């Protein structure tokens, strides 16, 4: 069922600021069904693994530090065209460039502390969903 799921994380900045409820409300209001959801915290090793594609980037160390500083909410979301529609809902990586009404425009501080993650392809959505959830945790 390619195209039907995406993986999100409400990042430590947004969880700590108490924005999780409003963000989840926006996600459901945009037509996404929650297949799986949990409050969890990434270890150093797991954060490095999740963001391995960025391991050579100058911001990698800061990104891992940020993503491990506190709990996150991970979720698998289902919708037709899930990856693309969710990227539209969250807005540009840098909130300064994010469209009005997007989650990052509303809740992100800067290019690093940008409130939410959204998978960038169907292939990565499947990998990232398996990274966070066992099959029996998905409904
Ligand atoms: P995304 O797909 O929109 O999340 O963006 P990327 O995959 O390019 O980057 C992954 C995450 O790394 C982003 O969501 C940010 O938290 C962080 N990040 C991206 N670019 C930068 C940057 O230039 N500086 C810093 N400090 N963090 C960045």
Brief synopsis:
This protein has 139 residues and is of the alpha+beta class.
Describe the structure.
The chain has 139 residues and is an alpha+beta fold. It has a single domain (5-137), classed as Nucleoside diphosphate kinase-like domain (Alpha-Beta Plaits, 2-Layer Sandwich), CATH 3.30.70. Helices cover 40% and strands 17% of the residues. The protein has 7 helices and 4 strands; from the N terminus they run βααβααβααβα. The protein has a 4-stranded antiparallel β-sheet with strand order 2-3-1-4. It is globular. Guanosine-5'-diphosphate binds next to helix 4.
Please render the helix and strand layout as text.
Elements: E1 5-10, H1 12-16, H2 20-29, E2 33-40, H3 44-50, H4 60-67, E3 72-78, H5 82-90, H6 103-107, E4 116-118, H7 122-132
Antiparallel strand pairs: 1-3, 1-4, 2-3
Bound molecules: guanosine-5'-diphosphate (GDP).
The site of guanosine-5'-diphosphate has 9 residues, from α4.
Number of domains: 1
> Which small compounds were modeled alongside the protein?
guanosine-5'-diphosphate
Question: In the CATH hierarchy, what is the superfamily?
Answer: Nucleoside diphosphate kinase-like domain
Please state how the strands of the largest beta sheet are arranged side by side: 2-3-1-4
Mean pLDDT: 97
**Whole-number radius of gyration?**
14 Å
CATH C-level category: Alpha Beta
Main β-sheet: number of strands, strand sense, barrel status?
A: 4 strands, antiparallel
Q: What percentage of amino acids are in beta strands?
A: 15-25%
């Amino acid at each position: 069922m390619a195209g039907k799921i995406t993986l999100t994380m409400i990042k430590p900045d947004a969880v700590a600021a108490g924005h999780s409820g409003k963000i989840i409300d926006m996600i459901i209001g945009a037509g996404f069904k929650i297949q799986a959801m949990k409050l969890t915290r990434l270890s150093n090793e797991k954060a490095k693994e999740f963001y391995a594609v960025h391991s050579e980037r100058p911001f990698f160390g800061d990104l891992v530090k940020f993503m491990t500083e506190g709990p996150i909410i991970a979720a698998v979301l289902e919708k037709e065209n899930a990856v693309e529609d969710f990227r539209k809902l969250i807005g540009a990586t840098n909130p300064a460039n994010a469209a009005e009404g997007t989650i990052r425009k509303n809740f992100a501080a800067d290019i690093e502390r940008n409130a939410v993650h959204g998978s960038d392809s169907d292939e990565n959505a499947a990998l990232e969903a398996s990274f966070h959830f066992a099959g029996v945790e998905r409904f």
